[in-house]
Each structure stands twice: as structure tokens, then as C-alpha cells.
Q: What sequence folds into this?
């Protein structure tokens, strides 16, 4: 297979290095990633101006063609397909994101947005996320078996797979829960607090608090409970007649 690997955390993220390394076991790998942090970009694209693209010579995975792109995660997919790759990939992997993409957070996610851009171009896509840390032992053990299983499953042309891994000891993973529905709340509660007011200018501080509970059967409940969560995300606009 020919696989395009993208993300929203940037070309220097440990998550994309891990994902590209794992993807090498499946075939030819290309990487196109933002040159800086682009979380919460959703499906934003650039429609004016210019986009700078540079070969990433120091990408830490051998035999990977990697590019650093001054644009959004969805831009990275568009640039790779239109200008960099000689042929369309068979599959797009997005991630591994630093932080879960479950529940309402999916709406904001640049990781999911990049996967959706692949879908727009008729390419199957999977989005991968893990807890906000640098411990990749769980995806290192489970990601490829999960991918191989999902490649044998049917999915509609207007959906992507969304996979979230708990962190920590891979031996402590309780299992893989499939067909998880999207939780109708955010995994983090973002709080905006008035910090100071100077004339017409108001400064707010922003903090995030991990949501303590999640409804049973949801993606959030799965990862909070120590399971790998597998579910589908519908584009909402690509459904057929």
C-alpha cells in the first residue's frame, strides 16, 4: 500500500514519528505535516496567498518521504495529493494526536479534519489519538492489528475510522471496544475566566479540566475505562442519494 501520514501537532511531533514508523510495516510511506502546532484547526484550508513547502531532511524514520508545510492539517493533505505524490495514496493516516479525539472534541480536531480532507478526495482515512503524553507503547502494540482488522471491515464512503488509545502499560489495556458512538460532550471542559479589563480590552485566561464522567457505550467512556475505542465519524456532507 501507499500511505500518506499527516497530523495537526506538527512535523516534529513524536506522535507522527511513531505513526510513520508503524505504517512502514504496511507499505510505502509519505509524510506531509504542518511546520508548527495546528491543533483545533478542524477542516480549515488556505484559500488565498501562498503555502511554503520544504523537504524535511531530518525526519527520524528511514525511507520516508517527508515534507514540512506552512499550512493547516487539511492543507497538508491537499498539497500532498496535488503537488507532492506522483499517485494518490491508498490510505491516509492522521495522527497520532497528542490528546484524545472523542466526543464533541471531534468537531474541533485538526487530526479528524485532515482525515476528512482525504475522504473528500475519495481516499479512505483513519484518525489516531492517544492521551496527551509521550508514551506510545499502547499504539506500538495495537495499532497495526487494529488497522488490519478495520481494512477488512465495510465503511461507507462518507465515513472515517476514529481510533483512540489509552496510555500506560499495554498489558493493562482491557480490550478493544468497537462501534463506539460519539459522546455528546467534550473530553475536556474549557473554562474562560476574566483575568483583567483595561478600557475596551478584556483579557481572559483559558484552562481545561478533564471531564469526570462519560455515558456508557461512547468513545469517551471506552478510553477513560482503559479500552481502545474504535468508531466511525460521518462527514455529514458526502452521503449519497
A:
Amino acid at each position: 500500500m501507499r500511505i500518506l501520514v499527516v497530523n495537526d501537532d506538527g512535523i516534529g511531533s513524536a506522535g507522527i514519528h511513531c505513526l510513520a514508523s508503524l505504517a512502514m510495516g504496511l507499505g510505502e510511506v509519505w509524510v506531509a505535516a504542518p511546520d508548527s502546532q495546528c491543533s483545533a484547526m478542524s477542516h480549515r484550508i488556505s484559500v488565498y496567498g501562498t503555502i511554503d513547502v520544504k523537504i524535511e531532511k531530518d525526519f527520524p524514520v528511514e525511507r520516508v518521504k517527508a515534507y514540512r508545510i506552512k499550512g493547516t492539517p487539511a492543507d497538508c493533505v491537499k498539497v500532498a495529493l496535488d503537488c507532492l505524490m506522483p499517485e494518490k495514496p491508498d490510505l491516509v493516516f492522521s495522527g497520532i494526536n497528542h490528546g484524545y479525539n472523542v466526543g464533541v472534541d471531534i468537531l474541533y480536531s485538526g487530526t479528524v479534519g485532515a482525515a476528512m480532507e482525504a475522504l473528500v478526495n475519495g481516499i479512505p482515512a483513519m484518525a489516531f489519538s492517544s492521551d496527551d503524553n509521550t508514551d506510545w507503547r499502547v499504539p506500538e502494540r495495537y495499532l497495526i492489528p487494529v488497522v488490519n482488522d478495520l481494512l477488512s471491515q465495510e465503511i461507507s464512503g462518507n465515513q472515517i475510522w476514529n481510533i483512540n488509545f489509552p496510555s500506560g502499560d499495554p498489558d493493562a489495556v482491557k480490550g478493544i471496544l468497537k462501534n463506539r458512538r460519539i459522546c455528546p460532550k467534550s473530553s475536556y471542559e474549557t473554562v474562560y475566566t476574566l483575568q483583567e479589563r483595561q478600557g475596551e480590552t478584556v483579557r481572559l485566561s483559558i484552562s481545561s479540566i478533564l471531564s469526570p464522567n462519560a455515558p456508557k457505550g461512547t468513545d469517551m467512556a471506552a478510553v477513560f475505562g482503559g479500552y481502545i475505542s474504535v468508531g466511525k465519524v460521518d462527514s455529514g456532507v458526502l452521503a449519497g442519494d
User: Anything to note?
Assistant: The helical segments are 14-23, 73-84, 105-108, 110-120, 137-151, 219-224. The longest strand covers residues 188-198.
